[in-house]
Each structure stands twice: as structure tokens, then as C-alpha cells.
Amino acid sequence: MHPHDDHHHDPGEQHHDHHHHDPGEIRLQHVVLDLGDGIGALIVHTDPELLGTEVEISPAGDDGRRSHKAVLRRRAGARDACVLVYDNLPEGTYTLWVDGVARAWNVRVDSGAVAELDWRRTSEAGSPRG
Fold first, then answer.
1. For residues 62 and 8, what is the distance between their CA atoms, to the nearest angstrom?
2. Which of these, 23, 28, 51, 63, has the minimum number of CB atoms within 10 Å of its CB?
3. What is the per-residue pLDDT across 40-92, written as a single tens digit (0 to 9) for each?
4. Which pTM does this prediction carry?
């Protein structure tokens, strides 16, 4: 775990306090994504080993302006999934960071759309994923 500042937000972004919960706890609440003109979202699927890991995101070319989300276990239908959900992202290209090291570059988020990354080592069928 590394120290971080919980106040990484844009001046126009609504600030809210958040509480840290057990990352292994299954989140049953539905995720509501704010999508629209100029705004998109990003979902990253991970292996359970990353539960609780805070993954930072920054606009491409602006590595110092990072915010973070933790990998959580969420209910998806009848199954559980380990995911990061970045909502309310301005359309653009992003870099994702784990422990201060860039893990994904040029991640495109389009207006009104949900982008997805798959960081799982294997798919459900057992074939490798990129």
C-alpha cells in the first residue's frame, strides 16, 4: 500500500467522501454510469489477486493528474467479477498505473460509450488474454 491523496479531482467534479470497505466483500449495488456528450466510462476486468489494489488513471500526456479506484468484487448476474469501474471520464485517451508503474497506455474512452480492458490472465475457456 502506498500513501495517496484522496483529493485528486477536477475543479468541476463534485467531491464526495468515500469509505474503504473490505475489497473481498461482494458489491451487490448496481453501478450507474453517467454517459453522454463528451463523457464515457472504463471497466477493467482483473484476476482476484488484484482485489483491493488501487489503480490510478491519468489523461494521456498528463501523468501527474491521476485519480484512483480500487479493484472490487462485484456481482454480475449469477457470477462474481473482479473489476475497476471508472465513471464520468471525459472523452480521451488514458494511462493506467499500478504501484506507480504504467500498465496500460493509450486507453481510448469515447463519448457516450463504455470501454473495457481485460487484465485477466486467462479467459473462461482457458485461452490466454491480452
1. 13
2. 28
3. 999 999 999 999 999 999 999 999 999 999 999 888 778 888 999 999 999 99
4. 0.72
78 assigned to some structural domain: yes
Residue 61: CATH number of its domain: 2.60.40
* Gap between the Cα atoms of 127 and 3, Å rounded: 36
Q: Please report whether residue 68 resides in a domain.
A: yes
111-125 pLDDT, tens digit per residue, is 999 999 999 997 554
Distance, CA of 106 to CA of 57 (rounded, Å): 11
**Which residues are within 8 A (CB) of 105 and not within 5 positions of it... i.e. 6 or more apart?**
60, 95
CB-CB contact of 96 with 44 (8 Å): yes
CA nearest to 19, candidates 4, 5, 6, 2: 6
Q: Can you tell me the distance from the alpha carbon of 74 to that of 31, in angstroms, rounded to the nearest whole number?
A: 9
Domain tally, the chain = 1
